[in-house]
Amino acid sequence: MKAKELAKILGVSPSTVSVVLNGKPGISDQLRTNLEKKIRELGYGDMLTDPGSAVRQTAAPAVPVIAYLIYMEEDANNLFAFFPAVIQGVESEARSLDMNVVVIHMECECKEGILKEQLEKTGNVVGCIAQVHTITEKIQQDIDSIDVPCVFMDSYNPELRVSSVNVDNKQAMHQIVKMLKEKGHTRIGYVGENCGQDFEIDRHFSFIRALAALDLPYDPFYDLFDHLDEDRMKEMFDRPDPPTAFVTQMDSVAMWTMDVLKGMGLRIPQDVSVVGFNNTSICELTRPRLTSVTNSGQLMGRECVHMLRILRRLADLGEKCPRLKFYMPTDLVVRDSVGERN
Predict the structure, then answer these.
(1) Distance of CA 157 to the CA centre of its chain
(2) 3-state secondary structure the chain
(3) What domains can you pick out in the chain, each with its CATH number?
(4) Which of 65, 84, 158, 318 has a 20 to 30 A CA-CA distance from 212?
(5) Burial 213-242 (b: 16+ CB within 10 A, else e)
(6) Is residue 85's pLDDT more than 80?
(7) Could you tell me the pTM of the whole model?
(8) Nearest of 269, 251, 247, 259 to residue 188 by alpha carbon
(9) Pairing state between β 292-294 and 331-333
């Protein structure tokens, strides 16, 4: 029996089997004990290194592991537009703290106990960072079933008692609307897609709140939040006082908006201004170049690691189920897609 074949039977990686067979450090004692028991039950106990050997006795403590959970949805076309930078930030910060990171893909409706089982197989997991668009009751139950702290990315639902690191949509929308107002824009529309995701709802509500805070009118007819409707957009400009600027949910939506406006014969920014969100690389490639809000995925990833450390310390002090929220500040990058309104 080869170690690779044994790993397949046990449902773990070949490297994990090698660690167990050779008595090397790198996994939790609980995982090692479970795997040794299964190996003996399969009749391959002779492959194990003597448990009393010097290697086992002098083994260094296992390196702490942070699990990055990606809950996959059926429609995940834009899932990885922003989060690679977040993962990079998590890895960089964990490495500086002598920790490892393992990425685990989870199904949103996986059967009970799968997450706990995955973490036990990984070994020595001291915290989880969860990436999911909408936290369902099933996912909440998964997280509650594990005994390590968990931090969510972009969780805005006030009804959920979870720790999270979020983009400060309220600050971002205030920055955008204030800038547009200073440039003479008073009729400002919104374009987005409402797929029921937490960040979409929070960003849209933050836009409406920013208008009120800056004493600007909100017109529901100029609010294209349900879905991207080209006919509705054209109807806006059949009115005598159409919007002079559009704030959009993200840069890809801003590109759609610019294409529709250009197709209607409108000039950007001479006739109407457009603002995106996320400041992706495409902003420098559009014509005109797209004004957008920047927020750092890498910094968000690093903050997730810091929050996990704080949660662990609070738990050590006896705090029961502490919940923290951190909002990442944003910056507005003004480019050619916004102009003065005479």
Answers:
(1) 14
(2) CCHHHHHHHHCCCHHHHHHHHCCCCCCCHHHHHHHHHHHHHCCCHHHCCCCCCHHHHCCCCCCCEEEEEEEECCCCCCCCCCHHHHHHHHHHHHHHCCCEEEEEEEECCCCCCHHHHHHHHHCCEEEEEEECCCCCHHHHHHHHCCCCCEEEECCCCCCCCCEEEEECHHHHHHHHHHHHHHCCCCCEEEECCCCCCHHHHHHHHHHHHHHHHCCCCCCHHHEECCCCCHHHHHHHCCCCCCCCEEEECCHHHHHHHHHHHHHCCCCCCCCCEEECCCCCHHHHCCCCCCEEEECCHHHHHHHHHHHHHHHHHHHHCCCCCCCCEEEECCEEECCCCCCCCC
(3) 3-57 (no CATH), 65-167+298-327 (3.40.50.2300), 169-294 (3.40.50.2300)
(4) 158
(5) eeebeeeeebbbbeebeeeebeebeeeeeb
(6) yes
(7) 0.76
(8) 247
(9) antiparallel
Give the Cβ contact number of residue 108 at 10 Å: 16
pLDDT at res. 57: 41
Q: Are 277 and 292 in contact (CB under 8 A)?
A: yes
Q: Which two tokens stand for residue 205?
A: 């509500």
Chain-wide mean pLDDT for the chain?
87
